[in-house]
């Protein structure tokens, strides 16, 4: 899973001279601005066009919001991050853990009238496995072969026991129609930009790039006929014009999460409802364990005690953030959380003591961050200023995003300030982020004991078996400061008070724009 920095727009003052709303038919005082909500149409604001209509490749927010309504996944999530049925009705492992099975619904159809079958699932996962692209490829390394046992049953043969496999493939793999995608020489390069054959609650019927994406209801959608006849994604230049359009009644929802300052302002608007959505990731500082003196745990612990966590959450995030108790097992996944974990106290004197024990004086370090990320740009100076009280000099390096990502990938930093967007499956996620050679192991952690604990958790076929070793791994990450988790953000999604019925799910990507939520949305009253 690639590291993702939360991409929220900059919050600026709302003024009368804000840019006009694209596609608007009138001003804020237009006659239809305050019309009652209608089940005919739900209009959602976004700040980006669809870049890629191939769901196996596209990974921007707008890409996902649109294609998730078109292409089913085996599972969805509930509010706690637990997997719930979607295309799959049940799933299980064999006793030895080397075979995984998923049983499918028999009432989902592609828009060309053909049924969605196990062959489509097999084709989708095999294409990713062979061409090795996208998020899923890095999460299904245990897969040997997938086969369709029947039209409604898929069997996955694994090279090793992997209790993360079904959660990974279930949540991350979009299922595409074999009849359509198999005609392309390369599935990865297939544009899929016209004549869409889909199987979600809504089908894409019209695209006006830079303006809107129109999706019509699928009346015979297996899990249930959506209430709304049409969903329209409208493209806006920024959050401020989205907010104006929402207040004027020109849209019903803002898709992207609100910057904390904007959410604070909208709290008092009775025409607007805010849905609070827990993040599945976290904001953090990572210290390059391959660089001296950061290879000394006492120095990393000194840095952990030199951060004013509460101030960052209350001031930079306006209170829209929770403590994770310095643990990588966050409150967003309560079934995994370790209640014994405690947040590092902001204690400059303890920092000084630890640095003295490590023989460090006048410690100077650089800290890289994405200068375009509004939250991190706000709290990075707070990290620097708090560290000064411990006698630590941190030189901030706010970088253009591509430069920042390049330095991160090359592990070219002392301190990395950033965030994970979706960390939904701890045994799999901790393997990617902290196991020796892990794809997103930016801190360059190499700890054989930690590797062994993560391996144990990944081999476990139930959460009950995986929980003890993964909690012990999280305690090691905490104590050795392989990661310094600052907070878990509470996202705010705004919609008109004239709408109700949404089914919130954790993460910025799912929020209330997930397929089950939009299918259940209806006018209030």
UniProtKB/TrEMBL annotation:
GO terms for cellular component: ATP-binding cassette (ABC) transporter complex; periplasmic space. Transmembrane segments: none annotated. Residues 84-435 form the Solute-binding protein family domain. PROSITE patterns: PROKAR_LIPOPROTEIN. Belongs to the bacterial solute-binding protein 5 family. SUPFAM superfamilies: Periplasmic binding protein-like II. This is Peptide/nickel transport system substrate-binding protein. InterPro entries: Peptide/Ni-bd, SBP_5, SBP_5_dom. One of its GO terms (molecular function) is peptide transmembrane transporter activity. Gene3D superfamilies: Dipeptide-binding Protein, Domain 1, Dipeptide-binding Protein, Domain 3, Periplasmic binding protein-like II. It holds the Pfam family SBP_bac_5. Keywords: Signal, Transport. Residues 1-18 form the signal peptide. Residues 20-39 are annotated as: Disordered. One of its GO terms (biological process) is peptide transport. PANTHER family: OLIGOPEPTIDE-BINDING PROTEIN APPA, PERIPLASMIC BINDING COMPONENT OF ABC TRANSPORTER.
């Amino acid at each position: 899973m690639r590291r993702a920095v939360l991409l929220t727009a900059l919050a600026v003052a709302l003024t009368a001279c804000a840019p006009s709303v694209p596609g608007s038919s009138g001003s804020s005082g237009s006659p239809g601005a305050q019309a009652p909500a209608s089940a005919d149409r739900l209009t959602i604001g976004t700040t980006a066009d669809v870049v890629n209509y191939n769901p196996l490749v596209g990974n921007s927010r707008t890409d996902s919001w649109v294609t998730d309504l078109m292409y089913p996944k085996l599972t969805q999530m509930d509010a706690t991050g637990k997997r719930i049925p979607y295309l799959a009705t049940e799933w299980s492992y064999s006793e030895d853990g080397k075979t995984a099975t998923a049983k499918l619904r028999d009432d989902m159809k592609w828009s060309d009238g053909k049924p969605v079958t196990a062959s489509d699932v097999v084709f989708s996962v095999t294409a990713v496995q062979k061409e090795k692209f996208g998020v899923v490829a890095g999460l299904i390394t245990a897969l040997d072969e997938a086969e369709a046992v029947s039209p409604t049953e898929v069997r996955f043969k694994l090279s090793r026991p992997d209790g993360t496999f079904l959660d990974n493939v279930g949540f991350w793999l979009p299922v595409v129609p074999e009849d359509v995608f198999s005609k392309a020489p390369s599935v990865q390069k297939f544009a899929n930009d016209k004549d869409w054959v889909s199987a979600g609650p809504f089908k894409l019927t019209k695209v006006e790039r830079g303006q809107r994406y129109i999706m019509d209801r699928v009346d015979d959608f297996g899990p249930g006929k959506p209430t709304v006849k049409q969903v329209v994604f409208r493209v806006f230049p920024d959050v401020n014009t989205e907010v104006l359009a929402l207040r004027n009644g020109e849209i019903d929802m803002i898709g992207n999460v609100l910057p904390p300052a904007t959410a604070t302002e909208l709290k008092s608007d009775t025409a607007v409802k805010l849905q609070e959505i827990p993040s599945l990731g976290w904001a953090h500082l990572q210290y390059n364990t391959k660089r001296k003196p950061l290879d000394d745990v006492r120095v990393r612990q000194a840095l952990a005690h030199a951060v004013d966590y509460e101030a960052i959450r209350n001031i930079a995030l306006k209170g829209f953030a929770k403590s994770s108790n310095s643990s990588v097992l966050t409150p967003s996944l309560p079934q995994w959380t370790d209640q014994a974990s405690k947040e590092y106290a902001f204690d400059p004197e303890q920092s000084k003591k630890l640095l003295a024990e490590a023989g460090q004086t006048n410690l100077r370090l650089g800290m890289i961050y994405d200068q375009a990320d509004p939250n991190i740009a706000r709290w990075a100076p707070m990290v620097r200023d708090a560290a000064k009280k411990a006698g630590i000099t941190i030189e901030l390096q706010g970088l253009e995003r591509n430069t920042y990502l390049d330095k991160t990938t090359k592990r070219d930093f002392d301190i990395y300030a950033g965030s994970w967007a979706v960390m939904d499956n701890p045994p799999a996620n901790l393997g990617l982020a902290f196991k020796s050679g892990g794809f997103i192991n930016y801190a360059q952690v190499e700890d054989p004991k930690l590797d062994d604990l993560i391996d144990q958790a990944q081999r476990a076929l139930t959460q009950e078996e995986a929980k003890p070793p993964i909690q012990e791994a999280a305690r090691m990450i905490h104590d050795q400061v392989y990661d310094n988790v600052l907070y878990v953000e509470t996202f705010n999604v705004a919609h008109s008070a004239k709408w109700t019925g949404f089914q919130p799910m954790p993460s910025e990507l799912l929020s209330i724009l997930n397929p089950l939520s939009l299918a259940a949305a209806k006018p209030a009253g």
